[in-house]
Every structure is written in structure tokens, then in C-alpha cells.
Design brief:
Blueprint: E1 4-7, H1 11-23, E2 28-31, H2 34-43, E3 50-54, H3 62-71, E4 78-83, H4 87-95, E5 100-104, H5 108-130, E6 138-139, E7 152-155, E8 158-161, E9 166-169, E10 172-175, H6 178-189, E11 194-196, H7 197-203, H8 215-227, E12 237-240, E13 244-247
Helix pairs in contact: 2-3, 4-8
The structure holds calcium ion.
């Protein structure tokens, strides 16, 4: 494996993490700021399997680093380390393209579990490209309620591959972040039903604090750009005023 790139300016913490990650078999390179990380990934094209990115860094913060990577079409699995008690950081992290987050301080066991989860998904995606496993299911609207993590979901001439995080719609292929995909999967699973913003925060992002739920709207705007023929007149991702959203696999009949 190519190992993990850890961006963390607190030297004591960085040293401890490197020691523990390497003890688990993950070669780990530590850098102390975002600029160095961007240089390694985007300029020198150094290969890593996963990026562990602290939010609080000297110079560019973790959000800026994540945004730059994604804008440069670098989709390395990205685990962001956020400050506990700042749920708005979590949403900001997802908006900037993080795949998962972990509030500091964290247990090593939880960090390792998150890393394994992200690597498993990456491996799965890679396998699919060359050698599709026999048990990947193509799900259609009537299967929506049981939609699984790696299913391919087909609706209205569009296709979402939850294993590779690719969405095909209107002649284009879009690369979803893990969090965009998880939000979409949540809405699809509840096809036809109204899904509140609060339930999205709790069930998709694991946030129980009182967070500004309007942050979800930004995600919906992005998903609409991918899915909808005309994002200003959505046919699939409908807003339910004052409550939340509703996914429809087929457009509603014209009124
Ligand atoms: Ca820091």
C-alpha cells in the first residue's frame, strides 16, 4: 500500500498517531501544514491511499485544503479531524469534500475503524472497474427501501453507482463525494416520503446537536445540478417547504 498522509501541526499528536498507524501496518507520512500536503498530492503526484486532515492548521485550514483537492479532481479518501462541539465544522468539512470526520479528541480504535471503512470503499470501487463482483445488485425504484451501500440504483434514465460514487445523468458522469452519495441514498431509501432536515442531520451525518439545518440545502443544490434537467424546477428532489425534502424516482404528473 502507498500509505497514509497525515496533516497535523501538533507534533506530539502527529508523532503518536504515526507510531500507532504504522503499528497497524499503514506506512504514514506526516506533514505540518496544508500547503505541503497540496504540494505532495497535486504537484508531485505522490500516491497515498488516504488523507487524514486536521481542520486547525497554520496557513490554509483543512477546509481550504479539501476544497482545493476536490477542485483539482483529486478524490483521495479524506478523513477530517474536527473540533468537538463544533457541528458546523462537520458540515463545512463535508461541503469542502471530506468523506468522513472524527471529532478530537478521539479513541485510536475509532480512528482505525474509520480508516478501514474508507479504504474498504476505495478498494471496492477499484475492483468494480476491472472485475465486477457477482453480488453487486442493480436496484430499481421498487427496491429503494432496501438500497444497500454498494448497490447501483437506476431511475428515470439515470444511474447512481454507490460503490464507485459515480452518477450518470443527462449524458454526463459526475463524481459524488461520499457524503453526497450517502444523502442521496438516504432520500432514495425513503422514496416518496417527506424527509426532514433534522432526520438527515441525525441519520446521514450522525449530528445530534442543534445545527443550522440550512447547510443541508447546499448539498441539495449540488445534487439537483447533477440529477435535474432544470435544477430550478426539480422533478426528483423536491423541497417540502418548512420541513425538508422528498425524492421521487419518476417526475410527478404535470399539474
Ligand atoms: Ca491542528
Amino acid at each position: 500500500m502507498n500509505g497514509i498522509l497525515l496533516v497535523e501541526d501538533e507534533e506530539h499528536l502527529a508523532r503518536g498517531l504515526k507510531f500507532n498507524l504504522e503499528a497497524e501496518g499503514y506506512p504514514t507520512k506526516v506533514v505540518g501544514d496544508g500547503e505541503t500536503a497540496l504540494d505532495l498530492l497535486l504537484e508531485q503526484h505522490t500516491e497515498f491511499d488516504l488523507l487524514v486532515l486536521d481542520v486547525m492548521l497554520p496557513g490554509k485550514d483543512g477546509f481550504a485544503v479539501a476544497s482545493e483537492l476536490r477542485q483539482a479532481s483529486n478524490y483521495i479518501p479524506l478523513l477530517m479531524l474536527t473540533a468537538r462541539g463544533r457541528p458546523e465544522d462537520v458540515l463545512k468539512g463535508f461541503e469542502s469534500g471530506a468523506d468522513d470526520y472524527l471529532p478530537k479528541p478521539f479513541d485510536l480504535a475509532i480512528l482505525l475503524a474509520r480508516i478501514r471503512g474508507l479504504l474498504r470503499r476505495r478498494d471496492w470501487g477499484r475492483t468494480l472497474l476491472t472485475d465486477p463482483p457477482a453480488d453487486v445488485r442493480v436496484a430499481e425504484p421498487h427496491d429503494a427501501g432496501s438500497l444497500r451501500e454498494f448497490d447501483v440504483y437506476v431511475f428515470d434514465d439515470k444511474q447512481v453507482d454507490f460503490g464507485t460514487l459515480e452518477l450518470r445523468a443527462n449524458g454526463n458522469v459526475f463524481r459524488l463525494t461520499l457524503m453526497e452519495a450517502e444523502l442521496l441514498r438516504h432520500l432514495i431509501r425513503k422514496s416518496g416520503k417527506i424527509v426532514s432536515r433534522k432526520s438527515i442531520l441525525e441519520e446521514v451525518w450522525g449530528l445530534h446537536e442543534d445545527t443550522d439545518t440550512r447547510a443541508i440545502d447546499n448539498f441539495i443544490v449540488r445534487l439537483r445540478k447533477y440529477i435535474e434537467q432544470d435544477p430550478s424546477h426539480p422533478q426528483h428532489l423536491l423541497t417540502v417547504r418548512g420541513v425538508g425534502y422528498r425524492f421521487l424516482p419518476t417526475p410527478p404528473p404535470a399539474a
